[in-house]
Amino acid sequence: MAARNLYLHEVIDIVGQGQYDYMAHACKEPTNVMPDMLTLQGTFFVCAMGGGRWPQVINIWDVGEQGWRGWAANVDRLNLKRRNAFYGDWWDEAAQWRSGGFDRLCGGVPGNPTTAEMGANGVSGTLFVHQLLTVRPGTGLDYLAAVNQQQAPLWREYGHQPTGIYEVLGNQHEVVVVWATSIAAQTRLRANRDAAHGLGSDGEADERLVAWERIAATFVTGGDTHLMTPLPGTVYGPAEWDEASLEDWLPPA
């Protein structure tokens, strides 16, 4: 059996409009070029139209191929050695764009794709769905098994690819699931879900979406689903930002 895939999930509180500078700065974190240290898988800005606290950035770091031995090496550099070796220019520069944050150590479960697999398979998205959910204590692995076996096949039909199916390892009541998608695909999923509930006529009713919600409700007791904008050039982000001008939304003169 291979070493377990571990990830660091960060929620970063951003100062002012510093989200774009901070996301670019995360790509320059020194560990990205250090063997067996954290490497950036994705960095995202929480999109205002999806709900959520703002301004915030979500970072997902891959702990590496060494599993718990890799985790131990990262803890070692950030423990008693950090004061002398890891307070440097990168940390000082990052402080101008962030005021704090919250970290979760996560573990991949069956069905979770590795960073290498996503790169090799060309998994990418221009919009990401971020689910940070509270489940009944002790049922996280059962819920994530249902995500892999039931939600993922259905959501793939709607153009949503799972990029993270994570057990949160610091408690027994949280899970994280992340999906790569597009605005068009997410709109279709939401409209068809509403139609199935008899709440709108924008889509075509898909009772399977309602059935999944009922299954999820047997596990999930709280949490939130947010939309995220990916930084171009990351493992599964787009190649470039979209070209746009304010005039695109203004009425003709």
Explain how this protein is built.
This protein has 2 domains: 1-107, Alpha-Beta Plaits; 109-229, Alpha-Beta Plaits, CATH 3.30.70.100. The chain has 8 helices and 8 strands. The chain has helices at residues 19-26, 68-78, 82-85, 89-94, 115-121, 140-157, 183-196, 207-216, and strands at residues 6-14, 39-46, 56-62, 98-108, 127-135, 161-168, 174-181, 220-230. Strands 1-3-2-8-5-7-6-4 form an 8-stranded antiparallel barrel. It is globular.
Secondary-structure map with pairings?
Elements: E1 6-14, H1 19-26, E2 39-46, E3 56-62, H2 68-78, H3 82-85, H4 89-94, E4 98-108, H5 115-121, E5 127-135, H6 140-157, E6 161-168, E7 174-181, H7 183-196, H8 207-216, E8 220-230
Antiparallel strand pairs: 1-3, 1-4, 2-3, 2-8, 4-6, 5-7, 5-8, 6-7
Helix pairs in contact: 6-8
Q: Count every helix, treating DSSP H or I runs of 4 or more residues as helices.
A: 8
Q: Shape from CA axes? A: globular
Which CATH architecture of the largest domain would you pick? 2-Layer Sandwich
The helicity comes to 25-40%
Low-pLDDT parts are: none
- CATH class membership of the largest domain: Alpha Beta
Instruction: Provide the gyration radius in Å.
Output: 19 Å
How large is the share of residues in beta strands? 25-35%
Largest sheet: 8 strands, antiparallel, barrel
Name the descriptors.
253 residues, alpha+beta, eight-stranded antiparallel beta barrel
Brief rundown of the structure:
The protein has two domains: 1-107, Alpha-Beta Plaits (2-Layer Sandwich); 109-229, Alpha-Beta Plaits (2-Layer Sandwich), CATH 3.30.70. The longest helix has 18 residues, at 140-157. It contains eight helices and eight strands.
